[in-house]
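Annotated sample (chain length 422).
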Amino acid sequence: MAHLLLQKEDKPLFKRPLDQTRLTIGRDPSCDIQLLDIAISRQHCAIERQNRVYVLKDSSRNGTFVNAKKIQEIKLHEGDRIQIGPWRLVFSANGNETAGETFVERRQDGEPAILNRMLGNSRPLKKVLDHIRRAADSAVPVCLIGASGTGKELAARLIHDLSRRSEKPFVAVNCGAIPANLIESLLFGHEKGSFTGAVERQEGVFEQADGGTLFLDEIGEMPLELQTRLLRVLETQVVRRVGGREDITLDVRLVCATLRKLKDQVAAGTFREDLFFRLFVFPIELPSLAERREDIALLAQHFLTALALPGEPPAFTEKALAKLKTYEWPGNVRELKNVIQRALLIGNGKTIEVKDLELTHLSLNKDFSGDKKLTDQEKYSILEALRKTSGNRSQAARLLGIARTTLASKLRRYQIKRQEWV
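Output written by the structure step:
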């Protein structure tokens, strides 16, 4: 498999497989490869796979250089050296000639520096990182448990990148964001003509993740009838496409995540008990940001540096930092990032003050009437967010501190119609 070897000052750090159609590089935390340097744009460049060809596209202010020449768009060849600020990435199409061994930089405590992707020094986070390291060394299924915004997909990616499967694909799927009539085809693939609209054969995500890791987010949202098929695949490592006649043998490591209590779903009959025990081998519970308050200042400074425009980033006043540390953060790390991003737009460019921090988050756990059930509170919060944003789902999701795909699944779960918020 093609990959990039990341270097800084000619020191090899680690390899990154090109296991997706489009890989983004830049200073923003949302990038697939995040490089922190003021010379690097938030969305600096991207590498796209076009059939068997990899194309590098620049979108930066300071430029991207390939073999010392500034480019806008270029087809990559074996051994090409991509310069982005002080960072160098060496492209290898065959996965073994240029980069050689897999290099992983180590921290002073001996842990892989890759674990620094989850920033913090709190005891709850250190416990999670220890579990991640242990999970990466095994092949057992892992279940990540945590509220929205606590970093479940980031934890899943770390488990993959620290494992022996790191050079193989990492495929992520949000089970709650897929229409029920399409999820079976997405998971297991389909043959041409197997249903209306199946104009060609399509591999499912299990096949795409063969040899690597499949991350199933919001596993509790999976329809009950598909849970039986998932259990069979996990037990046999064999999948059959929709409309297919042949079994396909696979080697896939499964990591799943949920913000719901699967035990309660088992008791309610909406989640299979046998599948629960098959998935719940190595549970890892991710703490809320309120449970790791000593990490808030570090995370806030990280987002401030990463999201600010090129040049000297503004500084927090002491009162602003104190405000961040005392807030409850119902939207967790994702909400903190959104608050910092808004503060950078509102502030004067030199300091971030208390007045720049819009801490008016609509908590999905906020008790609006005391006797309302949690489901009613969630629905109320969602409707309020949609009303405030005139129905803009992306803005509403940011206001709630959740992913847009999570909002979409909640709209389906509560059967919320447009006329309810208009």
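Annotation: The longest strand covers residues 11-17.
Annotation: The chain has 13 helices and 20 strands.
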